[in-house]
Amino acid sequence: MNKKVSGLAMATAVCMATVMSGCEAPSLDFLSGKKEQVSQPASSGDNTGAQTPAEEPATGAPQGQDQGSNAPHKPTMEETIRTVDGIPTVTNPEELYVIVNKQRALPSDYVPSDLTEPNVPFPFKDKVEKRLLREPAARALEALFSQAKQDGIELYAVSGYRSYKTQKSLYETYVRTQGEAHAAAFSAVPGKSEHQTGLAMDVSGLDQATRLEQTFADTPEGMWLAEKCAAFGFIIRYPKGKEDITGYAYEPWHLRYVGKEMAEEIMSRGITLEEYFQESRSS
Ligand SMILES: [Zn+2]
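A: This is the predicted complex of the input protein with zinc ion.
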């Protein structure tokens, strides 16, 4: 009997799943029954409200503090950011371990030089940029998908590279149709989407109902992915329970390539990319 309520609950659930998503918003349709429920889990970790300028550029960056023996080079987060036109911007966009989040944008003109299309199944036919990944990530994704197939798991690559221009256009569409506040809540600001790195891919199974939904985590494909991705150099970038650190809701479908060694440490310890690099500050 509670059709109305459950419909509303569902709309809210859809919103919550999509809120703060760094991933491609499925469409704008779900916004038509817009809710003001946008604040909760993820935005609490969003410290950008005050537009605090980042730390000074690390021009006399301390040397010799590097104690990390488990990674080739492990700069602190402060060492890899500077303010450009008032925006805290990463200085190492081309690194495979670059951290892009709500406090750390990519340069607006950054385009990876080694974008390529991985030979994996996509759930669409169009030849569009979201098929692309950077070379090392593309090769790793092929290996991951190949192993999945051997294990009887069918995966699809839903959305990879997204250019600054595309993100900007998407964001502006939100602003135009929903207003500035709504846009800020529902869509990544251009430059701050990890998809612009060319190192992130949203993955799904065949089932449309769990595509880019948190319920994907409970599917055989989602469980397989969480268990196996690290061995191929990928992490689940926005884990459950880490919303205040990543600034994003749980996204069991969003894979981020960081390389095998780092991925295995991050996933086995259940930490985030941010935590991995924050640790080197205190060491
Ligand atoms: Zn994503």
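Residues 22-23, 195, 200, 202, 254 surround zinc ion (CB under 6 Å). The radius of gyration is 19 Å.
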